[in-house]
Amino acid sequence: MGARAGRRGLFEGRAELGVYGFADAGRFAARLTALLGVPGAALAEHRFPDGESLVRAPGAIARHAVLVRGLDDPNAKLVEVLLAADALRRAGASRLTLVAPYLPYMRQDAVFEPGEPNSQLVVGRLLAQAFDAVLTVEAHLHRVDDLAAVAGPGARSLSAAAEIRDWIERHAPGALVVGPDIEATSWTKTIATAGGLPWIVGSKQRHGDRRVTIDFTDVPEVRRAVIVDDIASSGATLAVAARRLRRHGIRSIDALVVHAIFAPGAARRIREAGVRRIVSSDTIVHRSNAFSVAGVIAAALAPGGEG
Ligand code: R5P
């Protein structure tokens, strides 16, 4: 009884919800904190000479701790979020939500060649063990359509369709919305139809990390298009799609992605294919960031949300 009462006393007056960010997620964490009107603090990070990491939770931790980190360049960052989860629980958090605006390893969602892992499940299980909930935006989910099946019952992939539509309406009104592959059909349709915009999807085949072919049929006669995709990595998909659309006579082409991974040389490749503007959301810090999805996450964390 004594120890339990002492523990309650120690944490009396704690905030219900608090946002804790790694330094590299600082801007996104600050946006979230401001939108939610809750306390926020940074985690202290240390890298030992041998490459190991140490993470320290700041002072008084809220009952529901929200840890924010985009997981681009994921290998070291994944270990650090697992360390942070343990640190936050030991410091008093009774509920722990990971906000990973970009969630990695979602594309290897099956064993494509003998001897490979299902990376999606490996990473999902790790996160499910450490967190009560995982919130992300537009996770790359093709063969599995519910993130809860990958990263535990509290995991949700939130839609950025409204934010994307809003960008198109403000910057490329009336544009043809183009999804590069059949898997993007429902997403592309959702973005376009609520804004009354025309849309098409391509038929894409990947022949290697940096080589794809895409065909479009029934391209309407329009002057302006916005290619939308969840991720740009090598830039091959956007570049090839843009070249194809130009052959159909479309002269003004923008490319909009949610997760701006952009491997070295990708942006140049896309521009050389005739793309006028390359824009992205703020899930990964990049000079192309043009709109924020922090509001989508904040809505899920607000009272009545499920974060
Ligand atoms: C694939 O299904 C995704 O939606 C993206 O189209 C893909 O990951 C983009 O990769 P890259 O930029 O290397 O073509």
Corresponding CATH architecture of the largest domain: 3-Layer(aba) Sandwich
pLDDT averaged residue by residue: 93
Q: What is the C-alpha radius of gyration, as a whole number of Å?
A: 21 Å
Principal-axis shape equals: globular
Structural class: alpha/beta
The total tally of domains equals 2
Features:
binds ribose-5-phosphate; 26% strand; single chain; 307 residues; alpha/beta; 2 domains; six-stranded parallel sheet; Rossmann fold
What does this structure look like?
By secondary structure, the chain is an alpha/beta fold. The chain folds into 2 domains: 2-158 and 293-301, Rossmann fold; 161-275, 3-Layer(aba) Sandwich (Rossmann fold), CATH 3.40.50. The protein is 33% helix and 26% strand. It contains 10 helices and 16 strands. A 6-stranded parallel β-sheet has the order 2-1-5-6-7-8, sandwiched between helices. The chain has a 6-stranded parallel β-sheet with strand order 10-9-13-14-15-16, with helices on both faces. A two-stranded antiparallel sheet has the order 3-4. Helix 2 (26-36) packs across helix 10 (294-301), helix 6 (161-171) packs across helix 7 (185-193) and helix 8 runs parallel beside helix 9 (266-272). It is globular, with a radius of gyration of 21 Å. It starts with a helix and ends in a 6-residue tail after the last helix. It binds ribose-5-phosphate. Ribose-5-phosphate is lined by residues 180-181, 183, 212, 229-237.
